[in-house]
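Hi C.,

You asked whether I'd gotten around to modeling the 116-residue construct. I have! Everything is below, sequence then structure, no commentary in between.
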Amino acid sequence: MSTILLLALSNVFMTFAWYGHLKYGHDWPLWKAISVSWAIALLEYCLAVPANRLGYGQFSGFQLKMIQEIVTLVVFVAFAITFLKEKLAWNYLVAFVFLGVAAFFAFAFKTPGPAV
């Protein structure tokens, strides 16, 4: 559970690093948007690296990546709706359903452990 919580927190930072300037940073020069984004992304790495270290063993590398992508999408949907004030269209929902099916296949079957 700590892995998923850390990944969720890291994704909040990363979403703001990548997309936060879209709302408020239009007047900024590009170098400033990049610098601010990198500073925020540093916090993301400080959470993501421990999350993956803690989770590896409980989850495979493939499963950690799948968790990361699903958490990223959930965080981004909330961000886009609340912060960017975008609408969630039906085709995005269908795409998320297919990603949910992908997650099912990533976790539903026993996979071999890491190569030794």
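If it helps when you're writing up: Residues 21 and 27 are 9 Å apart (CA to CA).

Thanks,
B.
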